[in-house]
Amino acid sequence: MAGKTLRFDMMTGRFWCNDRIIEILTGAKRAVPPPVDPVDELLANPQEFVARVRALRVENERCQRYIHAVEPLVDFADKALNTHGLVDLGTAALLWNLPYGRNTLFQKLRELGILTEKNLPAAPYRAHFRVKQVWAKGGPWMVAKPLLTQAGLLWLGNRLAVK
User: Fold this and answer.
1) Helix 46-81 and helix 150-159: axis angle, to 10°?
2) What confidence score (pLDDT) does residue 29 get?
């Protein structure tokens, strides 16, 4: 019966359980093995100790390589998540560390057909953008400003092969 869990027997209408629970319920005493000191255990077998240390070093090196590999992604995610939902293309150029700025980014997006000549998102790409009406600088009129969504930021970064 050792090793079995608490179960209900449909035939008898009773519960049955493992030996330890029965001992606890009946008050039976069981010999408790003395505690083992892990340091004494490792010192008794130095080869095992050395093998464990080597395995931990290998695991640590693997983790460090992984951390180094994903560090740029984490930095980008931190910057992107601090944008509160929508990102203008000038900020996106800064987030991606592009060698050019907002105006060149707009030009490249027009060349790729992602933006129209009026800097609005083309029909197939509208899901990645939100267009907001903002007051134009220096004038009493409103202009449409394309903003990237969080998903659009990731999509466009991949589309432009930003590293």
Assistant:
1) 100
2) 64
